[in-house]
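Researcher: Please generate the 3D structure of the following complex. Treat every line as part of one assembly.
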Amino acid sequence: MACTHAKLCHAAFGLTGESGMEHANADNRTQPEAPLIYRTKLPVRIWHWINAFSIFVMLMSGMSIFNAHPRLYWGQYGANFDQPWLVIGNHGDSGFVNLLGVELPVGGLLGVSSEGARAFPPLLTIPSHYNLAGGREWHFFFAWVLAVSATLFLLYALVSRHLQRDLALTRAEMRPSHLWHDIKEHARLRFPTGEAARRYNPLQKIAYLAVILILIPTVILTGLTMSPTMNAAWPWLLDLFGGRQSARSIHFLCALGFAAFIAVHLAMVLLAGPVNELRSMITGWYRLPQPKAPATTMTEDAA
Amino acid sequence: MTIITRRNALIGGAGLLLSGCDRIAASPSVREVLTLGEKATRTAQRLVTDRNALAREFTRADLSPVFRENGTRNPGSPDYAAHAAERFANWRLLVDGMVAQPLAIGLPQILAAPQRTQITRHDCVEGWSAIGQWTGLPLGLLLRRAGLSGNAKYIVFHCADLYDGAPYYESIDLVDAFHPQTILAHSLNGQSLSIGHGAPLRLRVERQLGYKQAKYVMRIQAVSSLADIYGGKGGYWEDHHDYQWYAGI
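Model: Done. Output below.
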């Protein structure tokens, strides 16, 4: 145990020497003697940032497109005379969200904006003013970036065994008692430290796997299902999602899923130590968080 | 302390980013790059889609209870009003441009020709869809009858309506023009087209979005290039509102 830490420290200082960066003092909230480990490989980091940027552009241009018809339906068809399950609209100056027939007033948050009736306000859309053609241009360019980079990443993750080794849950982690323990620890904002922080924790793995294996494939396929040409090329898409309007609804729910993931992901980064987390996603080097109790033996080891 | 500074920097940055985004989005070179996405989409879709792959056809049970009207509801010109008053009895569809035999044909001839009926979904670029039953004359038949030139590359549809003061028109290439589901529809759900839906004739090109489905078609012109037609981008929405000419997605 102590030996491993010492070795890691040497490795870390070796990198410090090469890059000329002072890792040991980069984040004064972790103890200077905490070991740095090389946790995030270059392809993962590259994909993370390309994907993060694409997802933001897709969400914002997607809201631009949604503003053209801020109503969602289930089934093959759906237009103004049909029953929507979600509407974002307004009564004069106050916006509302109508979910499954229940109207929730949202004031000036949604439905209205300085530009008049807008489901999503200019602050959230690309372009910021109403421009359906512009929104579609951004959306369909970054759709390619998203789809191609996600495909390459998935291939890399399979071949390098990143998926099987780092992301897949172990048999022990899949036990309900283990998951329940992890949920309770998260709820108390107590995160793994020391050796346990070397690997992703089960809830983290589930969140990443849900994005990589469920949200991204589903958002791409439902996007294609909205294309009339793709319906002719691959008619099974319509059967898979139950029609174009269902696909549009699922596409929107995936977008909500991405937004929820981003919110939780960023909150976790802030709670776990933003400097350390950002450094690990930029340089790959991650400082293992140490338990709160003073770890005197470790200081001696490192020294 | 450092964190507050960083957050302030972030907030300031977001504001800059937003105005920056709009400036970036409006720049012609950025738009040029962005349209590469749509070009890639067109190429990829044409690659994976068989020339004759059919749009999904539905049953009468799937029809939208109300098929909403969209775009121009009535061209309103004196000429059009006169034809509508006569129920288009003296109206003629012109077929010209790069054809061996220009045609001027009336509704009775169109109704006497072989017909195709299809129940298909109309997809607006805005996101909504409506399912309707269309009956009409396959465009390919008409083009063969007129003796389409081997040099023609596009078919342009000139419409009776002005949209925002500009003539509505649309265009498709020959892959779509000769697609079995591409028809000049005169009926919706078994009734003659209403004025709101594009009487007497509207285009159905079922593998593309709604703005390609030109209403009030008066003249069909075969051309080798779209550059000399109005704004040169192949359609009203393309010329005036930057919609993509290829509307497969």
